[in-house]
Amino acid sequence: MKNKIEEYLKKVQEFHADNLEQLENFRIEYLSKKGKIPSLFADFRNVAPEERKEMGQLINSLKNAVQNKIVALKEALEQSSQSDGTDHDLTLPPNVTLGTRHPLSIVRNEIIEIFSRIGFSVSEGPEIEDDFHNFSALNFPPDHPARDMQDTFFIEKDPDIALRTHTSSVQIRVMENSKPPFRTVLPGRVFRNEAISARAHCIFHQVEGLVVDTDVSFADLKQTLFYFAKELFGENTKTRFRPSYFPFTEPSAEMDVSCNICGGKGCNICKYTGWVEILGCGMVDPFVLESCNIDSKKYTGFAFGMGIERITMLKYQINDLRLFFENDLRFLEQFKSAY
Ligand code: DAH
After folding, report:
1. How far apart are CA 211 and CA 220, in angstroms?
2. In the listed set 86, 117, 148, which residue is the last one of a domain according to the structure?
3. What pLDDT digit, counting tens, does each position of 37-66 carry?
4. Can you give the CATH number for the domain in which 272 is found?
5. pLDDT for res 260
6. So what's the pLDDT on residue 269?
């Protein structure tokens, strides 16, 4: 009996299965009711008492060897059937949930993309600014209300250092640090000491634009912004310019676009006027050019600035600005875009 078991053990160790059918036959051969192992257990009854211990151990180790062999071969066969390429496509994308861009990032990227198509570069500047870059060089008079603590976040009560209140400060940094011509957009986060509501927040985002060159005119400004409005809101968008005032531009204007919701007929988004304001703009005041050591007799320029929140709200008909800052996935997951 001992020889027989050892012979089986050797056969089990050497056994290989090419498919699950061969493996099943192997299992039947050893483990089924009439298989080799049950018949060994049946013979065990006739084993002399002094040999029982040894024979019992041998039969058990054979049984274990068979069971281990079946598990190992089954696993190997299943793996190789998966990787033969028929039931498992390795080129499929991984099954993970992809995140989406924040709506403000989508619109900022789209704005940058539209301007980059007509030769604008992108520049950035610091969020903590000094008085010169945020106010003085931009021609804000010393008693302008924006310089008041009520409107601006000053750093540790230092009247010279504040969180920038607009991206116009980056215009100054660009003009100081390089030579004209410039054609650049300046996106960034800005800060104002405002109560948070559906229409205002103490942190928001702007994109500024600056063009300085010889012979830049108001016609260039109009044509650039006309192109921009059509690219952003659609081919049928109309624009209009209204006179306005900013310390750093002269003349200054605000640009309205025809309401993209009602197409100009009048609705509650445009307050039944058919128009919505989207940006401020104007010809760069010669004082600003001179503050940055640019010869205002040789160079002229135009600038514009817009709020990304406002444009995003118009584009997607969002009526509460606080949604942008709450990180509620039910809101954020609705935005999918190429930008
Ligand atoms: N800085 C202005 C603001 O925050 C926006 C602005 C208006 C920027 C006119 C400009 C401009 O460059 O020409 O309200």
Report:
1. 9
2. 86
3. 999 989 888 888 998 899 989 999 999 999
4. 3.30.930.10
5. 82
6. 80
Question: How confident is the model over 80-135, as pLDDT tens digits?
Answer: 766 555 566 778 777 777 788 999 999 999 999 999 999 999 999 999 999 999 99
Whether 151 and 275 map to the same domain: the answer is yes
The pair of structure tokens assigned to 183 is: 């054609």
The residue whose CA has the least distance to atom 13 of ligand 1 is: 281
Residue 128 and residue 71 in one domain: no
What is the 281 CA–ligand 1 centroid distance (Å)? 6
Note whether 281 and 193 are same-domain residues: yes
Instruction: List pLDDT tens digits, range 63-82.
Output: 999 999 999 998 888 877 66
Count up the domains in the chain and report the number: 2
Task: Tell me the pLDDT tens digit for each residue of 251-283.
Answer: 999 999 999 888 888 888 888 999 999 999 999
Long-range contacts of 108-114 (CB under 8 A, 24+ apart): 108/187, 108/205, 108/207, 108/308, 109/339, 110/232, 110/337, 110/339, 111/185, 111/187, 111/207, 111/228, 111/232, 111/306, 111/308, 111/311, 112/185, 112/187, 112/207, 113/339, 114/228, 114/231, 114/232
Q: How far is the CA of 26 from the centre of ligand 1 (A)?
A: 83
**Measured between alpha carbons, how far is residue 144 from residues 17, 54, 135, 140, 141 in Å?**
88, 103, 9, 6, 5
| pLDDT at 165 (0 to 100) | 96
Give the Å distance between the CA of 324 and the centre of ligand 1: 22
191 in ligand 1 pocket by Cβ < 6 Å?
no
Phi, psi of 290 (to 5 degrees): -65, -35
- Taking CA atoms only, the protein residue closest to ligand 1 atom 3 is 166
Residue 10 is assigned to a structural domain of this protein: yes
Query: Does 125 contact ligand 1 (Cβ within 6 A)?
Result: no
Q: Which domain holds residue 39?
A: 2-86
**CB under 8 Å to 244, separation ≥6 — which residues?**
252, 253, 254, 280, 282
Q: For a substitution probing ligand 1, which of 218, 248, 285, 300 has the most ligand atoms within 8 Å of its CB?
A: 248
